[in-house]
Amino acid sequence: MKTTIRKMGNSQGVLIPKPFLTQLGLENEVEMNIEDDAIVLRRPRDSARKGWAEASKLIAKSGEDSLVLGEFGNDGDAELEW
After folding, report:
1. Which molecular function terms from Gene Ontology are attached (predicted)?
2. 11 neighbors 3 (Cβ within 8 angstroms)
3. Residue 30, exposed/middle/buried by CB under 10 A (0-12, 13-18, 19+)?
4. Do the beta carbons of residue 35 and residue 28 sit within 8 Å?
5. In angstroms, rounded to a whole number, what is the distance separating the alpha carbons of residues 65 and 57?
6. Is the residue at 58 inside a domain?
7. Global confidence as pTM
8. What is the maximal distance between C-alpha atoms in the chain?
9. Which uninterrupted H or E stretch holds 81?
């Protein structure tokens, strides 16, 4: 498909047809890279920590959030004055 590059404020862009977005499941964000001589748009990858906040809340709610190693100090803690 051939399309035109349009002026958008201080930038330029192209309009992506809705059927393309729907087919790829794209909504608000894309990852954009240059590969060889092409601009490539991809579905964003999931965050490395996606779901951690919800999982930690479930663990805390179940009471399984106690320390695994317990309390331990650092070398030199005995010399510290509070």
Report:
1. DNA binding
2. no
3. middle
4. no
5. 9
6. yes
7. 0.50
8. 73
9. none
Q: How many domains does the chain have?
A: 1
pLDDT in tens, 28-52: 889 999 999 999 999 888 777 888 8
Residue 39 within any structural domain of the chain = yes
**Identity at 78, one-letter amino acid code:** A
DSSP 3-50: ---EEETTEEE-PPPHHHHHHHT--S--EEEEETTEEEEEPPPPPTTT
Type of residue at 54: E
Residue carrying structure tokens 């009471």: 63
25 in a structural domain: yes
Domain range for residue 53?
1-66
Angle formed at CA 25 by CA 20 and CA 45, multiple of 5 degrees: 120
